[in-house]
Amino acid sequence: MQLGRAFVPVACSFLFRTGACCMGHMALFVNGAGKLNTLFCATREATIKASSRVLQESKPSTPRTKKSISEKKTMSAEGNGGAMATNKQVILRDYVSGFPKESDFEITTTNFELRLPEGSNSVLVKNLYLSCDPYMRSRMGKPSAFALAQAFTPGKPILGFGVSRVIESGHPDYKQGDLLWGIVGWEEYSVVTPEMHFKIHDTDVPLSYYTGLLGMPGMTAYAGFHEVCSPKKGETVYVSAASGAVGQLVGQFAKMMGCYVVGSAGSTEKVDLLKNKFGFDDAFNYKDEGDLSAALKRCFPKGIDIYFENVGGKMLDAVLLNMNMHGRIAVCGMISQYNLEDQEGVHNLTSIIYKRIRIQGFVVFDFFDKYSKFLEFVIPCIKEEKIAYVEDVAEGLEKGPEALVGLFYGKNVGKQVVVVARE
């Protein structure tokens, strides 16, 4: 995303789930004068309708084949409007229960015509980078009346945030060669609705950053910390899942505020990143701690003022025992619970009463009126190298299932990105 000029689709601190990433489609436009115009489709029904439109426009025009595509053929097809190409896709085999597995997905190809239907207002794009996000797990299960977002459809490509280049446009605001960011199918080519995407204007940062630091995770970290947590200089801040796309940024934003920051992660390598790359004051490997409450007491002898919640379960229980009076907890996500049939209960809830703790769940689109403010803050930080940012890059769409599933086993180090094609 770029300073003062962008459109952002759905996102949340838990988009399409409960707090770290988007439900209810929210499009954010910035005109040439830098003024924001927001379009909210706040209801679940509106969101499902919008998501369904993307699914319909992304579906293959012809039956699948097993023929692979070569880069030479792809380039030739792109240079000749209406030529046929093959379109590699990541398909959901069936609804998922428990932890997702690579076998829950299938790599297939379809025949794909590189031309829009006459009179179409859509945009045909080649996908470059895809974002792996924890919220996507909530869309792999069976449809539910209680779900915040429409489930993926078995037999069709899964959907997620991606960075794409326009091949052909039926929309007056987009032309061939433009770069876009928004929801796309996990495939090489997609037909998308421009209203659910934004145009990328500044390209002096890696385009993959629009899957994280300059995209939904970055705004999630900014809004969750600054708007929900109401931080003050000198306060103590704890971030769980701190080496991920959101956590690594929350910790750095907190340090910029003059806070004392501790993070937890699931490996020695990640702990080292937190302390030596991202500048956390301290960090620990939660897998090495038999008593999480004791570990937090060791790191925060005077208690925790702010907890940025990404994990849930036993971690939240331990945190409640170590919170200070009038502490704040921003509930961004609960990744430890997403794959459980019966989610874990929390036992130390009376601490909320006695310590007057404020716990707030959030979705990032609630704060997109702050988006221009976020960009004004974060882009100079990137250019001045005040923010460290780590990506875990998987090369090739065929590596997508492995990369996505790895999120739920803690295999990624930093923001997980899948490269479909280099720009």
Automatic annotation (TrEMBL):
Keywords: NADP, Oxidoreductase, Signal. Homodimer. GO terms for molecular function: 2-alkenal reductase [NAD(P)H] activity. SMART domains: PKS_ER. It comes from Brassica napus (Rape). This is 2-alkenal reductase [NAD(P)(+)]. It catalyses: an n-alkanal + NADP(+) = an alk-2-enal + NADPH + H(+); an n-alkanal + NAD(+) = an alk-2-enal + NADH + H(+). Belongs to the NADP-dependent oxidoreductase L4BD family.
